[in-house]
Design a protein that fits this description.
Length: 205
Amino acid sequence: MSWVGLDRKVNIKVLGGYSSSAKGTDLSKKGGETIVDSKDITKSTKRPFYLKDNINILFQDITFKSGQGDGEHGAATFFILPASNNTPSVLTCNNCKFIDNTSDSRGVIYQYGAGNVNLNDCEFVGNKAKGYGASVAMLTANGVLSANRCKFSGNGLENSSDNSCFGGALFVEGTARLKDCEFEANYIKNSAVNKAADAEAGTEG
């Protein structure tokens, strides 16, 4: 699924967690569970969600599981690119879960170029990648990761020979702002290097 903006900022909200008994436009009934299960989607570089060009998107109360990505830019769930004028896209996830997603390269969320990622009350469990940050990989000095009250557990990089493995849970070249986050049993399985198993970041604010 792709969201590509034009010459103006596009704001999108994707909300989950509603009861199956809710009908029509009735969004008052909460208590359900919304799951995006990608196990039957063919593994490809066309990751489930592709964001580019002035997109400001919010996901709330959604579980993303079994996403797959391959190739150099094969994010398991989200791949974020800036607009041609370097205007950043912004991804915000509130109370979301990312479970058992895999990538042959970068992590569940891969941001390349100008762009910001905001995570609030999210959980990343059992996600795997082979290069950078099994949960979040931000390969730009212009990106900002803000994570509040998030949990990262059992996420890791599994690459037995390549020495370019960094950050078992997180890799951020730009700015990482973490508050009240928990890291547990994140890892790197690599015989060539021994990098930080939880997180590596350029700067912290």
